[in-house]
Amino acid sequence: MKLKHWIFIIIGLHIALFAGIWSMQRVNVKPNLEVGQEIDQFNGVNVYYNGGVGTVTGRNTTADGYNLGLKYQCVEFVKRYYYEHLNHKMPNSYGHAKDFFDKSVKDGQINKQRNLIQFTNPSQSKPKVNDLLIYKPTLFNKFGHVAIVSKVSDKEIEIIQQNPGPMGSSREKFKLKKEKGVWNIKNSRIIGWLRK
Q1: Measured between alpha carbons, how far is 134 from 147 in angstroms, rounded to an integer?
Q2: Which of 40, 58, 95, 134 could cross-link with 101 by S-S, CB 3.0 to 4.6 Å?
Q3: How far is CA 171 from the centre of its chain?
Q4: Dihedral angle computed from the Cα positions of residues 113, 172, 167 and 123, in that order, rounded to the nearest 10 degrees
Q5: Which spans of this chain does the record mark as coiled coil (predicted)?
Q6: Can you give the C-alpha Rg of the chain in angstroms?
Q7: How far apart are CA 18 and CA 31, in angstroms?
Q8: Could you give the angle at the alpha carbon of 120 between the alpha carbons of 115 and 121, nearest 5°?
Q9: What is the pLDDT along the chain (196 residues), one digit of tens a residue?
Q10: With 0-12 CB in 10 A as exposed, 13-18 as middle and 19+ as buried, what is 135?
């Protein structure tokens, strides 16, 4: 075969791979659960099952019109948690998970878009329960991810999350280590956290 043919075959395989991944984002890989079914809760705020990670069943807003986000994406859970449990409304109520982290804000300074204190990973400040954890985007998830810190010790944190991916769970643990005076969550995707 000529080089030209091989190039077309390779391009075709890449297109098929990405199309398959895109369609899988809407497939319910846990047929025993229904989209919108409660699967966990933290401090009285429910976590709902979302089916495929790309599934959206409308926008969730509060009675007073505050935007919580798209049902039942990760952003919707953390904003609903902050609204219901911490009585907090963000000045900017829109954006993807990755948009919660403002790269121009230094560690321990206020993130004005979210009206929360922002910390970088690693940080001078140890994560606390109720912190909003932010993940950077990946090749297969250009929107990033957000979760809530549900437990903290000197060696690990536990998070609670909504829409963690097809094989993910609503709870996950990460190692936490203090190195050279700063706290580091041992996951390269975690770029920082926000705190009321």
Answers
A1: 7
A2: 134
A3: 12
A4: 40
A5: none
A6: 19
A7: 23
A8: 140
A9: 676 666 655 665 555 444 444 444 556 667 789 999 999 999 999 999 999 888 999 999 999 999 999 999 999 999 999 999 999 999 999 999 999 999 999 999 999 999 999 999 999 999 999 999 999 999 889 999 999 999 999 999 999 999 998 778 999 999 999 999 999 999 999 999 999 9
A10: buried
* Tokens linked to 18: 């990405």
Give the burial string for 81-93 (b: 16+ CB within 10 Å, else e). bbbeeeebbbeeb
Phi, psi at residue 19, to the nearest 5°? Answer: -65, -40
**Calpha distance 139→2 (Å, rounded):** 31
Are the C-beta atoms of 29 and 21 separated by less than 8 Å? Answer: no
Q: Is the peptide bond before 72 cis (omega within 30 degrees of 0)?
A: yes
End-to-end CA distance of the chain: 62
- 12, exposed or middle or buried, with CB in 10 Å at 0-12, 13-18, 19+? exposed
Structural domains in the chain plus CATH codes: 3-195 (3.90.1720.10)
Q: CB 193: neighbour CB atoms within 10 A? A: 29
CA distance 111 to 181: 23
Cβ-contact 133, 149 below 8 angstroms: yes
